Amino acid sequence: MTQLPEEDLLFRILRQLDRAPDASQRHTAEAVGVSLGRLNTCLRAVSDAGLVRISERGGPDKRRRFAYSLTSRGAAEKIRLTDRFLARKFAEYDALHAELTGTTSGHVPLKHRTELMKNNLAPIPELYVSYESSLKLKVEAADLTSWDLTPRQICDLELLMNGGFNPLKGFLTEEDYDSVVDTMRLADGSLWPMPITLDVSEKFAESIEIGQDIALRDQEGVILGTMTVTDRWAPDKSKEAEKVFGADDLAHPAVNYLHNHAGKIYLGGPVTGIQQPVHYDFRARRDTPNELRATFRKLGWRRVVAFQTRNPLHRAHQELTFRAAKEAQANLLIHPVVGMTKPGDVDHFTRVRCYEAVLDKYPSSTTTMSLLPLAMRMAGPREAVWHGLIRANHGCTHFIVGRDHAGPGKNSAGEDFYGPYDAQDLFRTHQEEMGIEMVDFKHMVYVQERAQYEPNDEIEDKDNVTILNISGTELRRRLAEGLEIPEWFSFPEVVSELRKTRPPRSQQGFTVFFTGFSGSGKSTIANALMVKLMEMGGRPVTLLDGDIVRKNLSSELGFSKEHRDLNIRRIGYVASEITKNGGIAICAPIAPYQATRRAVREDIEAFGAFVEVHVATTIEECEKRDRKGLYKLAREGKIKEFTGISDPYDVPENPEIRLETEGTDVDNCAHQVVLKLESMGLIAAH
Fold first, then answer.
1. Which pLDDT score is estimated for 380?
2. Which residues touch 516 (CB under 8 Å, ≥6 apart)?
3. Do 157 and 149 touch, CB atoms closer than 8 A?
4. 539 among known catalytic residues
5. Catalytic residue among 82, 295, 311, 456
6. Residue 624 contacts by C-beta under 8 Å, 6 or more apart in sequence?
7. Is 114 a catalytic residue?
């Protein structure tokens, strides 16, 4: 194989072929600054190395016999060499600046992060190839093995490609992953607190060779980019949970995702961007980091404070952002997350409508709004640093960090995962290196006598004034029960949008999910409950009984753990659609696995209430009732993987209601569920 040219020449060749792939060899040689013979030698070398694809082209002009295009590997190498070239040129410039002026220029790349990042007006590197190269890569990628990305991976890839995750050039390698987990830094020392990994199934990982290029596609099969797989490993997920999230506790949504949703194998390697994911919603509000920086350049904004939010804006938030902008002497960027947030959060469509409804309450000359397609991890302190780095990439100079920033709520012991100011402390430690300054979140409360919001810790006459506040929990209760939300707390426009999405609970859809052993009485009680709810009227009621679903929805599935999980997830999907559209779904499968029940709960609670009913009939009693003779066959070994005999059942720890059926008739059991639904406000009391 012909030896590759030195880095500078290789960089110039790849850049030129990317910019002008159809130029003649003579023109390319002139642009690169080498002889025609030297260019031909170099082209053979880069072709042998798999960086450039050479194809014959018809036509009368023999000087344009060949067409050149960068492969995905060549595009990734060009991005790497661009960074090295820029770093060297900055160093040369700084040396010249020092020779002429006796001072440094302030633009020398630091070990961890370049000073250029602190200039919020300068463009930052992206991973996209040129439009011409992207057209050729799409054709080339048709022959590559494809991985269909999950929603979280699509969010990660978008921010990798557009520079939002700069300095990352792809999904983390094993060395970078280990370093990030242990030290919050990449292997080269750059600050980066969050593992950004491509998790895949074991089956897919086994089909991939190290060094292979794969196509990364969205869930519709549209190609977004390619990746050269340099690393493949099985991570220690418990260690990742402990180090990154502070505890290996499934009550943490990211830890639950890690163990129960993410693939078992991680792939790492550089990414080549072909095109952005397609978003059909709020397109005018979506800006890449460089688009935002261009906006700030145009407006002359040198100081910009970002407000991170995954909740609707209320009056306290408005006052907080006003004060933050004034304190930082900066313009305001409202930068809400519209990727994945915490299960149970208000959907981003509703939230963005709420933001737009109150945007005119802000001065248009000093405030703008842009949407961030980030998949949050709810990692508290590490997440705050991560958010700061992302906002610095988007051109912000200041960032508001809240009390318990990106906290996921309570752990399994009922305590907060993180201390209220842990995030602020960690951010403060690293803010100089990040190139973005923290503005402390003030806890704003309403002082009735003065009819204004003030920081709680700055009110000196607390004993003489009336302090009002409504917590998030109280707001959700008032929405659920259709109670008044005072105008001092929120804007009427915001409340109106929230009421559209969150009507009173008695008007929402919901799911009642029975779980228990075979023969425990689930189906019988579920039927009785269905009749009682249909008697009340008002909402359509659908029964998704285990046997009925098996016959009509999952007839091809067996009874392995994988197939049982798939069956329950199908039931959950149908129930979530019923719930979303205002109906009542009653499900009665065995559903033996806690992780699967939790996944179904999360799917349904995005649209309405999930009521888990554990029919706690003992296995002995179920065997006595064994009308179908299934337990007898299972004891004889004729039925494999039978719940309670040869396969485990995870007893629900905290169901909404637990029914003891022995010695209790069906009507009474169903009535207990009705009373529970009434107490939860899901049906009107009679």
1. 93
2. 522, 590, 614, 615, 616, 617
3. yes
4. no
5. 311
6. none
7. no
